[in-house]
Amino acid sequence: MRRRGRSDGNVRVTIGQVAALAAVSTATASRALNRPGTVSDALRERVGAAVARLGYLPNQTARALSSLHSGLVGMLVPAFDPGHAEVLEAIQTRLAAMGYATLIAATGGDSDRAVGAARAMAAREVEGLFVVGVELEGSLGALLDERRIPYVLVDACGGTPTKASVDVSYAAAGETVGAYLLGLGHRSLAFLCRPANHASQPAALLQGLRAALTAADASLPSEQVVAGGSGGIRASLRQWLTATTPPSALVCADDLLALAALHEGALLGIAVPGQLSVVGCGDLLFARHTTPALSTLRIPGAMIGAAAVDQLLERLEGALPTGRSIPIKLVIRQSSGPAPM
Question: Can you give the pTM of this predicted structure?
Answer without folding.
Answer: 0.72
